[in-house]
Amino acid sequence: MKHTPLTAASLREHPLPLPQAGSKDARGRALVVAGSASVPGAALLAAVAALRAGAGRLRIATVASAAAGMGLMVPEAMVVGLPETADGAVDVAQAATSLRTLADGCDAVLIGPGMLGEAPTAALAVELLGADASFILDATALSELRARAGAVRARAGRAVVTPHAGEMARLLDRRREAVEADPLEAARAAAELLGSVVVMKGASTWIVEPQGGRWLYAGGGIGLATSGSGDVLAGLIVGLLARGLPPISAALWGVFLHGEAGRRLAGAIGPVGFLARELSGVVPELMRETMG
Questions:
Q1: 20 confidence band (pLDDT: 50, 70, 90)
Q2: Which uninterrupted H or E stretch holds 63?
Q3: Residues 109, 234 contacting (CB under 8 angstroms)
Q4: For 220, which DSSP code?
Q5: pTM, entire model
Q6: Can you tell me the distance from the alpha carbon of 19 to that of 49, in angstroms, rounded to the nearest whole number?
Q7: According to DSSP H, which parts of the chain are helical?
Q8: Contact at 8 Å (CB) between 63 and 88?
Q9: Separation between Cα atoms, residue 256 and residue 263, nearest integer Å
Q10: What is the DSSP string of 221-253?
């Protein structure tokens, strides 16, 4: 099966829902479950990206020690402080019930950026997948999903996963070098394993759906290989899911906007040196231009 280049033209088959007059609830409710005491900024980057992508309401669930600061940094969001462990991770055992309640009240949920503890975060992701929402599983939520693949597959059609090569290698129990040698094959295997849309991040990014469709984004430049860039991508996708896009469309738009934001910043600042936090600010203009 041939792949489709991911361009502004190919996105016309996946139109964005246009905001209509009405309440912010009509633009969707996004929940970002992210961060730890040592990496609190991951939640911030993802949360701002979700708003820039057009989500109407935003909730952030992060460790209690970071919650007050997060509320000041993102005054547009409702922030929930979660119980945390001695090492500054979300205490999944204590937080799961309250997080499930939060997820039940949202249209789209992101789990993983900046979180600690691969096995407990993956278990939490599977638990929250029972909510009536769309999902993006990122970072720490991914590596231990292989043992829980059946539970993810059982909720097919509602999730996007966004691994880089190292996370994909652990997910598929392969060597990283094998994933890097054939990222498309790895993405296809993960899509089949999880029954989910897969965004295989790299210098070029493959987007694969379980039904076999595949798209290639040829890259936004080396500057995107910087700390926090993946958190922004995950936030864009959850914001787009909240707006009502199906998982494959949200993944395609998220990858395109993220890459084109990197391309634009590289032209304005230089090929390297721009910050992940600067990507989100370019997104609304890029959406307007791409939609024509």
A1: low
A2: strand 57-63
A3: no
A4: S
A5: 0.95
A6: 18
A7: 41-52, 64-73, 92-104, 118-128, 149-153, 165-172, 176-181, 183-194, 229-242, 247-268, 276-291
A8: yes
A9: 10
A10: -GGGSSTTHHHHHHHHHHHHHHTT--HHHHHHH
Fill in the amino acid letter for 13. Answer: E
The answer for residues whose C-beta is within 8 angstroms of residue 139's C-beta and 6 or more apart is 42, 112, 113, 114, 115, 167, 230, 231, 234
Q: Shortest CA distance to 123 belongs to which of 86, 89, 78?
A: 89
**Token pair for 281:** 């600010």
Q: Which residues contact 262 (CB under 8 A, 6 or more apart)?
A: 220, 221, 223, 224, 229, 274, 279
> Tokens 């009240």 appear where?
105
User: Within 10 A of 158 (CB to CB), how many other CB atoms are there?
Assistant: 20
Phi, psi for 82 (deg, rounded to 5)? -100, 150
> How open is the CA angle 139-91-239, to the nearest 5 degrees?
45
14 contacts 65 by C-beta, under 8 angstroms: no
Sequence-distant (≥ 6) Cβ neighbours of residue 19 within 8 angstroms: 26, 27, 54
The pLDDT value recorded for residue 221 is 87
Query: CA-CA distance, 8 to 4, in Å (whole number)?
Result: 12
> Residues with Cβ < 8 Å from 125, sequence gap 6 or more?
111, 112, 135, 137, 141, 145
245-284: pLDDT as tens digits:
999 999 999 999 999 999 999 999 999 999 999 999 999 9
pLDDT in tens, 201-233: 998 999 999 998 999 999 888 999 999 999 999
